[in-house]
Structure prediction request, 225 residues.
Amino acid sequence: GENVEQHPSTLSVQEGDSAVIKCTYSDSASNYFPWYKQELGKRPQLIIDIRSNVGEKKDQRIAVTLNKTAKHFSLHITETQPEDSAVYFCAAPLNYKLSFGAGTTVTVRA
Amino acid sequence: GAGVSQSPSNKVTEKGKDVELRCDPISGHTALYWYRQSLGQGLEFLIYFQGNSAPDKSGLPSDRFSAERTGGSVSTLTIQRTQQEDSAVYLCASSLTGASYTQQFFGPGTRLTVL
Prediction:
């Protein structure tokens, strides 16, 4: 089955700096890679996703890159702000369902 | 439109009691998922419903856990003879189709505390 590994488990950055979270997956047939953000006490919400036919996707300060050969994908947050503090989860398909990474707790220091 | 809703938002129960958690998916969504999130942990898949197909129960941790989905809409997760290790947030999600590339929308969760 799919095994999604996510690193780091915690990340502390200075406001304005960039944050990068990396995930690896095992199933070469995986074709969809979403990222969810979960603020404290809230539900996970999709912030960006990427299909396997593209290598990079951007949405304002957030970008995701995909390397299918190496089977890893990354989330990049630029110009971090305090509201970016949250837990971020990556995911990859396992047959018809998603397998989630263990999460990265991002703390943005003012 | 209305998102995924869950009830109750919080549930405190005594060890050994049964509990029922409810999920109302987004109208028209054919796929429904239950996950468990222990304190500071990731999302643990429990069960998946897709249309009229037999559910995927491969993530249920024990036979004390069961779930049903009536009429292809509302779902109920039942935990019998609750144990302290069952304490967690139980999240429900729905998606328009069962395809893995379809966005999953999460509910607010039910925080279960077993004393």
Q: What stands out?
A: The mean pLDDT of chain B is 93.
